[in-house]
Structure formats: structure tokens, C-alpha cells
Amino acid sequence: xxxxxxxxxxxxxxxxxxxxxxxxxxxxxxxxxxxxxxxxxxxxxxxxxxxxxxxxxxxxxxxxxxxxxxxxxxxxxxxxxxxxxxxxxxxxxxxxxxxxxxxxxxxxxxxxxxxxxxxxxxxxxxxxxxxxxxxxxxxxxxxxxxxxxxxxxxxxxxxxxxxxxxxxxxxxxxxxxxxxxxxxxxxxxxxxxxxxxxxxxxxxxxxxxxxxxxxxxxxxxxxxxxxxxxxxxxxxxxxxxxxxxxxxxxxxxxxxxxxxxxxxxxxxxxxxxxxxxxxxxxxxxxxxxxxxxxxxxxxxxxxxxxxxxxxxxxxxxxxxxxxxxxxxxxxxxxxxxxxxxxxxxxxxxxxxxxxxxxxxxxxxxxxxxxxxxxxxxxxxxxxxxxxxxxxxxxxxxxxxxxxxxxxxxxxxxxxxxxxxxxxxxxxxxxxxxxxxxxxxxxxxxxxxxxxxxxxxxxxxxxxxxxxxxxxxxxxxxxxxxxxxxxxxxx
Length: 490
Known about the structure:
The protein is an alpha/beta fold and about 500 residues long. Helices cover about 40% and strands about 15% of the residues. The strands form four sheets. It has an eight-stranded mixed β-sheet, with helices on both faces. Helix 1 crosses helix 3 (about 45-60) and helix 6 packs across helix 13 (about 370-380).
């Protein structure tokens, strides 16, 4: 008998005997050594062994017979049988959620308004990233080193230090009142989205905002139109809520409005920086989409994805501004502009929907983290966010330009870069008969993480291409990384 393992000596003896009985190594009716004998053998006190015997006796595994000793019960409690497939089938989940699990896989999906964990990221409580690709061109990964973490720590510490115990109870499901006002000011100044604090609901990222929209607007069987190619988690979310999700093609001007099914109740779009192709929706196309929504009494969900990072061209008016907020719900996130782990985003809601959305927020998670929300209020109000954004924008603009320059110079005849002037990634279509999956695999083996553009199509592979993010790769690493990618070309 080994006494290695957790717990005190009595617990270890108990565990060893328990396992021997349930596994059949000590059979029914078999006699155990006297407590004094086993204690001497293990070099422990007799009371230590007696405590283990008493516990096993109380649980029905042993029986003591006066004058004869201690024996294994004739019918010891049975070990719980492993669940079989048939038994597990009784625990049925809705097929929509099973499909969502298969679509997204075990890791978080990459791309719009979310950040991939990736195979090498350590779990909860981790201090560093393991096995990170040597050249990381994955989508949706911002450079967290640009974020002023020291300033953020000070703001969080101040919130905790000044927290009044009387305010430590439940708060407003819509979020910190000061933060909602600060967000309203921020989107008003930066994106001409003219709203008040009451129109804003603070969420745990853009994904929760979409979930709230789906909960209050989408009934099972309703049609929801999404871009094709597009953001997989949005598509999977609406499908999991029972919607019939329909992909609508995009072209050089964005979502093809004429292809939206007339019966669609909700249209989800990323007009500022189409995900994953990268082009903005033209002003003419924006007007057509809003006219379609009015004619069909539908709702448009505007995910203003990557609107903060724009390197040329004047940003076009958001759909929300053009519509006056009547049929457009505006979704924003601080995942890439700050740090993804903070899980802070927001939803701008038309007045007729406020009560329902707040009720849905209350029922799903009651409220967000008031300390983080208070810190973000100060971060926005004190000008720290604007200062950080200016610095990050300069850095990402330089990276964007470097990627485009190298691709056009070194991949001429191999790739055609899709026009894009914003965001943290760009797309490029492949010329010639190239197995993109195989290319991505060879690149991964060579330490270069890139993505197959076809992975963002729900139906078919679409035009073959690559998607390359530059948020996680430093400026001076871009050219060596793309040179390594070129070496993987067939």
C-alpha cells in the first residue's frame, strides 16, 4: 500500500482500501489485517488506521465481527457505472445549440468583436501565452501591449478604494449610469451617433449585445439575414435561438440589398469594415438597406466593427445616424480598442425596445461588473481612451501599410489584396489553383498563423483567399513573417 497523494495519512489509507474494494482487488468477505498489524507495516499510529477502517465501515464497505476481525462486506456499494451513450441521450439539448457547438468548436471563434483563445493560450489565471505562433497573423487579436495597463490598474484600484458599501448591492441591468452617459458622448463625437444615456445598454462585449437583440426580436422560425461571408458567431447565435439564418452575398459596395429575402425580420451587417473582406458599405448601399428595412418593417443590427481604426478616407455615416435610430440597433465593443478580457461593449437601443432589452439583460446576467464599468467611465471621461486610441491608430496604420506593401511587392501574381482602409486585418484572394487549406497548414508548421478566407463562408468555400491580421504581429516582424509565408507557397 502506498501512502503517496493528497490528504492526511488516514485519508490516504482510506482511499487505497476504498479503491481496492470497488475495483475487486479485495473481494466480498475477505478479511483485512488487524489495525495494529497494518499500522506497524505502514509505520503509522494504530488510531490512524482505525479511523480509515471506521470510515469504510460507516459507508458500508467493511463490517466488523467481534472476536473475528474486519471483513469486506458481502455486498459493498457498487461503483457508479460510466454513463453510456444511451443513458446520456436522455439529456437532450436543443439541436440548435448542438449545431452551435459544432460550428464554433471548443475554442472561441475568431474575428469580428471577439478574440480567439487559440491552441496555445493558457487558461484562467495564466500569466503568459504558451506556444504562440512565431508570426501571428490571426484575425481579431489586438496588441494588448499598446494598452496603458498601469493607468487602468490605478482606475480600478480607485474604484475599489472609494466603493461605498451601501452601493455594493445589485445595480441597474443597463449598466453604470456614468458609463452609459460617457459612451453616449463618445459615439456622438466619434461616430455622429446622437443618443442619450437612456438609449445605451452596457454589455459584456458585442456578442452579448447580439444575444440580447436575438432574445427580444427573434422567434423560432423567423428569418435573419447575415452577410456571406460573414461573422460565424453571429450566424451561430441567431441559429441557436431558432432563427432561419440566410446568407446574403456581399460585393465591392457591401451587402447586396436586392438579395435579402423579403421575409427577413432582422438584418445583421458590418458596414464600417465588412467582416472578413474589409470593404466599407457604400453610401448608396446604406441608403438602399435602410429603405428596404422601412419597406419590409425589418430591423437592422449595425455592428460598427473596427470603426475606431481608420487609416484613410473619411468614415461614412453610420446606418444609425442615417436612420435616426428608428430601425437600427447599434452594437459597439471595447474588445480591440482596449483589452479583450475586460468584456465591455454596448448596445444602442431604440426607445420602443428599451424595456424589453433591459429585462433580457436582467434575466441573463443581472448586471455587469460595476468596478470595471466605473473604471471605464473615468478612462473615457478623463481622455485616456482618446489618447490610447490615437497611439494605437498610428501603430496599426503603419502595420496595415507594411502588410499591403509587402503583399503587392512579393506576392504579385499570387494574391490580390481586397481594398480596405480600416481595422486590424485585411483579405487577399488567391490567384491560380492553390489548395488554401494545405497552404495554411504548411504555414502553421513553419510558425506562421494565417487564416483561410473560405472558413467564413457558411455555404461553399467562396473565392479562395487568405485573411491576415496584423494586430498581434509587430511592425518589424511583418516582412519576415510574410517572407516565411511565401516560402510555403506550392
